[in-house]
Design brief:
The protein is 2% helix and 53% strand. The chain contains one helix and 24 strands. The chain has a four-stranded antiparallel β-sheet, with no helix packed on it. Strands 2-3-4-5 form a four-stranded antiparallel β-sheet, with no helix packed on it. Strands 6-7-8-9 form a four-stranded antiparallel β-sheet, with no helix packed on it. A hairpin with a 2-residue loop joins β6 and β7.
Amino acid sequence: MSMVYDSRPCQLGEGPLWHPERQQLFWFDIIGRKLMTRDGGTPREWTFPDQVSAAGWIDRDTLLIASERALIQFDLSTGTSQDIVALEADTPRTRSNDGRADPMGGFWIGTMAKTGDEAVGSLYRYYRGELRVLMTGICIPNATCFSPDGRQLYFADTATRKVTRTRLDKDGWPDGDAAVFLDLGPETLNPDGAVTDVDGNLWLAEWGSARVSCYSSDGTRQRSVAFPARHTSCPAFGGADLTTLYCTSALQGINKKDRAAHPLSGQTFAVEGVAKGRPEPRVIL
């Protein structure tokens, strides 16, 4: 059964990252322009001038953070940041969304219209100093995660209600076309953020369904874990043994009736012992 890990409500909670060296969870409120954490149980947050959405870890005290205009290097000890590379800095109508580091040390990040209703987003990979665009015409990029060996990319454009799978080469670049892994259209489910566990199962937040579902590598739904928020947005494994499943959620898109039914919406949750995750890989600049 899930519990509230952090009660601060997010307009759009996203991008949970368990830092393996710090043994600490970080996540974002995109609309609130905040990076959030709990430090020894104490709530802490940093506010940015731009919307921020996803991160990877570079070292113990440094994160790579995706903002609406750049990938930035953020120092947790001083709260200072510097730009690494521009990210659609000349396109003010877009922002970053879902992103994750791959096992080869690259960082994937999707962009989208701030309104969420135009297919003007793209999918990028930053790898050893190069930011390369790999896909365009995306509405809402989500579910970016990788098989344990790093040779398969999972990705979803939420608007299509499909999760795709793409083979990657030894350096982590796409090697062939994307194939449909899950088609959630018949169930009218909306794929959001995702992560894989140590066995290669995909744990997918299903926006609007108050749950995270587990799918085996052949696309079979194994189980669903309920959370007390209608808009579950992204899961992450963490804790000392990586058997805690965290999940962010959102107030965005919640009407009065839904909020009354799900008063904990926007908060961040945890559930113990559903599966075992893998350490998030380090980003190599």
